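Fig. S4 source data, part A: sequence.
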Amino acid sequence: MPLPISINVATLQVAGVVSFYMSAALVMVFVNKAVLSSSPDLPLLFLLIQLLIAVVLLHISAAIFRRVEIPKFNWQTARDLTPVVLVNVIGLVFNTLCLRGVEASYFQIARGLQLPLTILVSSIHTSCIPSAKIIVAATLVSFGFFVGVAPSAALPLLASPTSITLFYGILSSLFIALHAVLIKSSLPHCDNSTIQLAWWTNFGSAVFLVPFVVFNGELQILRANLVEGDWNGKVFGWGCLVTGIFGFLLCVAGLLSIKVTSPITHMFSSAARSVLQTLLGFYIFHDILTVNRVSSILIILGGTMFYTWAKSSEFKPSPPQPVDLESARRPSGTQDSKIHTVVWSVDDEEK
């Protein structure tokens, strides 16, 4: 008689959420890269369409689920949320421009200063000096970044990222750090609802982005591409749709990952995703991996995981309380946990 198999529902739930999060993040990075490679002259239009798709999906979700509440437009709220929306859209633009100019496997190196800058901005905002362990983690991650950007004789000139592209990566990391700080003061303006803030962030970012798409001439470029007939518009069209949908799903996946798992588990899943991203970039886009790049990725991952461990050891857990989707908040124990919850916008890590 076969022995009964005991299935741990909680374990299956964690495995499912982690797999969902990793899959959504990987799809976002590689489809974004494929679209930006095929249409490098339409980065802002590509981002605008992603934002609009996220807004549409929020409205569809609100029509299906009662807990998803779309806020009513209010000029006072719009003015109050202008700083966080501006910081968000500027970060998204620099993030997109950075990804356009680097290989998919190199993207995490180009944004390697994200954790140190987040720690720095948060420390300045709170006027608190981080602990020695946190400073060590930030120093380690920063060292990994400089190892990755150091010139390498083994790297062809065409595969080397330009200085402006690396500058975009640093600015993207900086604005993500600023966004993480601004989010706390922004939530009260939308009833402390992450979903309402998601709508304001995506809608407001799209509104601010429209004039830049026009002034950058991307509508004329799109028209010229369609008229010429040799442009592969299918990659752009399907890429916009896929990244718009998966960007929305990534928001949900990031929230569920922190809700169901611990910060340590979430960070290890992020580390595993980074390794997969590097390997897939090598096989799909034929990215070049040098000793410097591999060492940089490993150092950044090691420093980030050390930060997560250090932060978790300092964190004193409060008594467990029921978690609701509207009131769920990410702990400050991970870099990704800050980013995904506070942004709730189309680009994750990939924003």
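Fig. S4 source data, part B ends here. Residues 3-7, 323-351 have pLDDT under 50 and may be disordered.
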